[in-house]
Specification:
Helix content is about 55%, strand content about 10%. By secondary structure, the protein is of the alpha/beta class. A hairpin with a 2-residue loop joins strand 6 (about 305) and strand 7.
């Protein structure tokens, strides 16, 4: 983070997200403030709370993508949750604390995978030795059941046998590395843990119970091993994975994961407008304010118990988003509003933005589809007029039906290229150019028929 200035964060986001400069600036400042907080004196550090953000705008304009790219840019733990899946304590639904448990679980698994990748070389060396032991069992140097004089009598020939075995082992090692033993079968004991399946039907706050039962029974039940006959390469992979797990210090991984979540975690709360009150609540809506009050201590800063230990949420960055069509941010309870001091409105996308989305980002659709068809030796390209027409149709359909932003481009592109994608393995003409005429012929009838376009586009 010391190398990432706010302007550079925005520049990185520009590679994947078109427009929305205000939102990019806000998240860049919030991210830089995290680094700044780490540099201030320790007595003041804990007093500086993260400036949480509400992104306001219709679906498909880049709200989620901004948060996701932000986490990848800084290697921060990230999780996206829908606020609408939570319900007030006492109603059936998920507990708000589950999002903290989920982000911790994700971070532990991510760091564990990295640690295993780091020790892969060492694990492979151990796996190689174990595989050679299977292919060439070591000779017994002494038999406890034989008298001493018999053991002495066999001492000389046995020494020669060990030297010969060592030479054979090195030859086998070379054959193993050269792949000459790939078709050989070995008998390998694969450990598997049999545990009873425990289903827990309970109220909110108890979804961890199933996991805890598994952990409890898992430690009580002995590990069962099953002998399997497998090929040498598969055996090497199995042994290497097992050894990599043994080499990883899980206490260190868990400690780092908890610290990473507490200081750099990002939680994206989508659809927060769905839990805002639109006047007096009755019936099913009565739990909306309750969900907000349950969320409040998590966003304000509290301690959540997970199976890996306690997690403080004081410095987790919360980015909320919502369309706010039927309500506004001021409909949230005042305490929760105060915990989201930064509010940014994202703009709806029009024709010009669609053209840029199709062509400019690193993951642009006009790069994805040619890359997919390249695997079938088909060379697909689009001329400028076709791109402009696709953008125009996307804008028109969004205006006439539901406005789903840039996601409309995905449905239009799939519809446009359906025949090409289906026939690609058998097509004789390997160079295909999509022009304006192709776009009009394929999409004209669907676009003009409003009822049809509601279902297809």
């Amino acid at each position: 983070m010391s190398d990432l200035k706010p302007s550079e964060i925005v520049k990185e986001l520009d590679k994947y997200i078109i427009g929305q400069d205000n939102a990019k600036r806000s998240v860049a400042i919030a991210l830089r403030n995290r680094w700044r907080r780490q540099q201030v004196p320790e007595d003041l550090r804990d007093e500086i709370a993260p400036k949480n953000i509400i992104l306001i705008g219709p679906t498909g304009v880049g709200k989620t993508e901004i948060a996701r790219r932000l986490s990848k840019l800084t290697d921060s733990p990230f999780i996206k949750v829908e606020a609408s899946k939570f319900t007030e304590v006492g109603y059936v639904g998920r507990d708000v604390e589950s999002m903290i448990r989920d982000i911790v679980e994700l971070t532990v698994n991510m760091l564990k995978s990295r640690e295993q990748a780091a020790v892969k070389g060492k694990a492979w060396e151990i796996a190689e030795e174990r595989m050679l032991d299977l292919l060439l069992p070591k000779p017994k140097t002494q038999d406890a059941h034989l008298p001493e004089n018999v053991t002495e009598m066999h001492a000389e020939p046995l020494h020669d046998t060990i030297q010969e075995s060592s030479s054979t082992r090195e030859k086998l090692r070379k054959m193993l590395r050269d792949g000459k033993l790939d078709n050989r079968d070995v008998d390998l004991d694969v450990s598997e843990r049999v545990m009873p399946v425990v289903e827990v039907f309970s109220n909110v706050g108890m979804e961890e119970m199933g996991i805890n039962f598994k952990d409890m029974f898992g430690s009580m039940m002995p590990k069962n091993t099953r002998r399997r006959k497998i090929k040498v390469p598969e055996g090497m992979e199995t042994i290497a994975q097992e050894e990599a797990q043994n080499l990883v210090d899980m206490d260190k991984v868990v400690s780092r994961a908890l610290e990473k979540v507490e200081h750099t975690g990002i939680i994206f709360l989508d659809e927060i407008d769905k839990i805002a009150e639109k006047g007096g609540g009755h019936g099913p809506d009565i739990s909306r304010e309750g969900v907000q009050r349950d969320l409040l201590p998590i966003v304000e800063g509290s301690t959540v118990m997970t199976k890996y230990g306690h997690v403080k949420t004081d410095h987790i960055l919360f980015i909320a988003s919502g369309a706010f069509h039927a309500c506004k941010p001021s409909d949230l309870i005042p305490e929760l509003q105060g915990r989201f001091p930064i509010r940014v409105e994202l703009n709806s996308l029009g024709r010009e933005e669609f053209v840029r989305i199709l062509t400019e980002p690193k993951n642009a659709l006009l790069l994805q589809y040619p890359a997919l068809l390249k695997t079938e030796d088909v060379d697909l390209s689009f001329d400028d007029a076709a791109v402009a027409d696709i953008a125009r149709i996307a804008e028109e359909v969004n205006t006439r039906t539901e406005n789903i932003g840039a996601r409309r481009l995905h449905t239009i592109m799939e519809c446009l290229l359906e025949d090409i994608l289906f026939d690609a393995p058998d097509v004789k003409e390997k160079k295909i150019v999509i022009n304006k005429k192709c776009v009009e012929e394929k999409l004209k009838d669907i676009k003009d028929n409003e009822d049809l376009s509601r279902y297809i586009l």
